[in-house]
## 1
Amino acid sequence: MGLVIRGGTVVNAGERFTADIEVEGRTITGMGTGLPKGAGDTEIDAAGRFVLPGLIDPHVHMELPFMGMVSIDDFESGTASGIAGGTTSIIDFCIPGAGMSLLDGLKLWRERSAKATSDYSFHMAITHWGEHTADEMRAVVRDHGITSFKVFMAYKGALMVDDHALYQVMKVAAETGAVVTVHAENGDAVWNLQQELLAAGHTGPEYHPVSRPSAVEGEATERALTLARLHGATAYIVHMTCRESLHALERAKLAGQKCYGETCPQYLLLDDRVFNAPDFGGSAYVMSPPIRPLHLGHHDALWSGLSNGMLDSIGTDHCPFTHEQKRMGVKDFTRIPNGAAGIEDRLAILYTHGVVGGRFSLERLVELCASAPARIFGLDKKGAVAVGMDADLVVFNPDAKSVRSARTHFSKADRSIFEGFDVQGKVEKTIVGGRVAFDNGKLMAERGAGRFIARKPTHFAHPPEVKA
């Protein structure tokens, strides 16, 4: 039994056209006009609607143990929330605990992710450098199809790596053809600023952004790109928030370096006034790097980077904690668990403020949220509506209007950082692996239906020799 989607406007990166789409099993098997209906086929009338490739979120943290808590969305609820918002694949971060090998960490994350409702893959985090780390990195790429790593230049005393470790990670990544995703903040500077603020009695969430000024992000971005350049490694700077960081990326790209940059919707639309919300409400917005002041030009720089191609993708950094979990830091902002929900909001928010707002086209939105993440991270069967690709599709009504709210999203998060945002455009149906998993507000995602997607390395500093 197959599926036929009729009369929609297909939108890929760089193109749009009207076509019927035929699906058999998990794969798009035909496209054209007037496709015949097979016996038992389900038909979807998409006239007047856009049909988009399922979005890919390259930056999420499901059920992440962090800062003494575990993020509230597990792989089932988090991927289901994504499906409701048009995201049909995620790349989570496998972060082994202290003293744990990369392979043991991977085993743990594979167990957690077995309940995912959509397809997924992993970035492997390197949080220290030991005598076996290089060999474990090679094994992760060679034997397990994980072709991207993560380093944290922040969170001193926990996840942060020093420059020696960063140098070594870049070296092995270049050798193995992997991408290095980088959380770029100068962790030593942040730690010292935090201690000085606390010593002065500044303990509220409004001091979180003060402890992490944009200069520390810009400096770390420059440093990460420099170490990548030494080895010819491909660096991907995650959740970029500021002019300084973007300018470092621009300089590297214009000099011919192969590197990528990602931002998130919260950094485009929110500003640091959110931290002054009453009743500890500012804690909902505590994430790192922080949301920036409006008057310093960071927001305009990011929007420009998205429109002119200097920024390559938009993730969400979906990592929600409840208000009660955040209260762990009620007397010390450095103890507030960092993170917020966002995977369900991304498409509607970006369509409203990016496309309808005239900042970029719908084709560019698809590139930023689907085709570019697929290309960068080697998800070969995803990111486009085309014959032979995975049947991950979104039927999107451009005229519908709604209001974003924690009361209506499918995340377990009890607050939304986009609460009350009016949006235009609505996901009507989401098709995951050829099956309708979301239909006009009704979630039909199946626990465990997601597959782990193994990937092949493509970012070698020097391509390996092909033997005859």
## 2
Amino acid sequence: IRKVTQDSLHKHIATIPQDVCLFNRSLEDNIRYGKTNASKKEIIAASKKASAHEFICKLVDGYGTKVGDRGVILSGGERQRIAIARAILKNAPILIFDEATSALDTENEKYIQRSLAQLMKGKTVIAVAHRLSTLLEMDRILVFDKGKIIEEGTHEELLQKAGKYAKLFKMQAGSFMKSD
């Protein structure tokens, strides 16, 4: 642990925050921030996995489009997809998701969940989520209430416990079924 520096730590962690930080640069530059020496081919591949390539190609300047301060020209879901593309490109061993799919519609969330499942294989993932569908593939889920852990287990184990997690999941699944 003595050998860990801020720089070495940064190289090993990728984050997908709820409030994405984008720079007033091109989309290509914003995605490349995850891996500064990435090729255009790698950027496009990461964008496709993050379900961002299609909307990027519809923009007048495509990957060259400047996004404005904090990505103002993009919707919340588009900004999150850029952050996901950035994390896919970085391919770090530790991933931190802070409501990583909260700004996505249900259809895009399904596509991105598949990509995130691939991205998470063999990695340490810390995920904060109210949208419980984000947590289905996790090895261990901790349920907090008022700052205390009240349940823990896999998705299936928590459903069998029929506690707070199961109740919340059933409520969310019910609203998902009604919106289809």
## 3
Amino acid sequence: MRIAVLGLGEAGSLIASGLVAQGADVIGFDPADPKSSSVPLAKSAEEAIAGADIVLSINSASVSIRVAEHAAQHLKPGALFCDLNTGTPSLKARLSGLFPEGSFVDVAVMKPVPGSAEKVPMSVSGAGASKLIKQLEGLDLNLSYVSEVPGEAAARKLLRSIFAKGMAAVVIDYLWAAKEMGLEKWALEEVMAEFDSSNRQTVQRYLSGTAKHAKRRSVEMSDVVAMLSELGYDSTMVGPIELTLNRVIHSKKIPFAD
């Protein structure tokens, strides 16, 4: 079984080299023509695609349609085309329509690719999802089956981004505000301590505590606004926090809150 990796940027190179390290037969291609690569390189995308049983496209949403259209012309019968690029569910459904029934897999990389790339969690959906998991079961991969509907894996990734990117944005805004007050070192330690002590019960406390005390917390955020205004700091996150609390106050239910 041969695996073609189209796109040898940071993520593609790590995933490809991780597969090679496990003994997989991997061929890579990148139009940028990498000067050094730990995986064998094809001379063209056509060469990589035509000889592969599994094709992994790891580029970007901006070129995913073009890559898929090209791959569809050269994919051999029975082979799988797997799109690992970030994209909307509707984009994944569109890509699926380019391939024969059962040939497309929507693969969502759920966390940043670490140094040990083969262990990064990936959710898979689409008509070829089950086949992909079966073909790769001999490798130490972290694949989770979602459904046969292309786009349902992508939807999970994008939904998770609200949490992951939103949390990062709150921390950054918090540290920017702290810097205006000369408290950035103290503020960073507070964040570190909060993360060190967090667990499942912390999440429940956030949900239930906000549901119970939304009005009081909204008043507190008004004090935050006043303080930051006096500093001349224009927060990027306080407004959305106030809006969320106001929706809770006006009976917008919080899922799973006590």
## 4
Amino acid sequence: GSEMCIRDSNNTSSVYHETILAIGETKENSNETYLGLSDEDFNKNPYLRYQGSQIDNMKAEQERISIKNYLEFNNGLNISTSIYKNNFQRNWYKLQTVSGQKHGKVLSSPHDFPTEMAILRGSDSPAADLQLRANNREYFAQGVQIALGTTAQAFGADHKFELGVRYHRDEEDRLQHEDGYRMVDGDMVLEALGNRGSQSNRVSDARAVALYLQDRIELGDLSLTPGLRFETIDFTRTDYAKDDPNRSDPTRIRENSVSALMPGIGATLTMGSNGRLFGGIHRGFAPPGPGADDDTEPEKSVNYELGVGLDNDKATTQLVAFYNDYSNVLGEATIASGTELDTGELFNGGSARVWGLEASTNINLAPGNQEWSVPFQVAYTFTSATFRTAFDSKFDPWGEVEVGDNMPYVPEHMLFSSVGVARDNWRLGLEVTASSAMRTEAGIGNIPATSGTDSYVMLGLGGEVDITSWGSLFMAVYNLNNTTYIVAVSYTHLTLPTNRECRS
């Protein structure tokens, strides 16, 4: 990957302006796979890779460009403008089925699929029993945003107004197919070449207009920031026949739209010379996406936050409590979300509650030293996420949900800490990241061994040195302690042990 940023600024007696041009490009060619391991094989060798994934490969390209301009006039008026465009193309060519069975189902119960397991391990297969899907997709996102800001005095307070508008458009283009391979002496041989678009042939498009207005009000030690955001989104999903790669005529066009009005207010109270009390109430919103059924509702919530902070020359410390009240949560059916479905279909999850605490501190352990600094940071988050509606969902990570069930893939405890040394033009730091296990299916009580991830502690080491006045060189080593842990579990509707996928 590469990125270039050009900045141009000018400051005169009448107006200040600054322009930033950023251009970036990223390319990927990785032999990444979706194929996991059975529990037995994972316990023997978590880095094992089956022969059935030998051709799995991800190719991706991304190009991005943005132009940002800032103007500030002597009368206090400022104008910020941003124009951006992002193109992304990828083809993840990966194993989908073996002998007609989803590989997640096979690995969930290997003893019930001995023939399929043998093929995955490299035994000869009859005909093109290994189907590889070319998940070929193209995306783009582009838009323009303009924000106006000004200051004023009214009703005994200082005001900082900001008014913004954004037009955004994005698109996903799927043209996917599957090829058939035969396993011969441990090697996969192409036997059946699939036709472009024979697995998925559709375009999803969204256009959005957003407006917001906020006012930062300074009243002595009290600062209030009320705001209001309005957004309207129009979705279109155009489906084509699976034998029509040139897209001569759509088979179905689905259109839907959604609008939302989102108010919010934040407040900060300065207490003495070092303390502050802050909080806020904001409405949350997430759209259902293109092609959603009429029964699929937007994700809506009301989010509360209350915290206290202490800042001085030696340390910055704060404690925050949060509470998110969802009237509806959404789940998306993709293999990446741990479900056998890969339709992108969205599911209503009804009412849910997420609450927790965040505590963090940043300290310089050598405050009196003029040559050295020893920064130390620690941050801890506790989260509780539960459903408040009972329902039966086709979305595997939810399944049969009862009121009070914990939501999947939400760790209860997370910890991050770092300590470093810095002097002159170089810095060196050691990081520790830790997380408790996560359940991968909605439930309550202890996490079952077959439907949960692992807890982990991971170390990292990084360093940076300034080589010129405008550039620096950095290096990082992740997972320094070479820990191995499960981060995702594949599902099947059979009442059998589930598959575990390893990432390290």
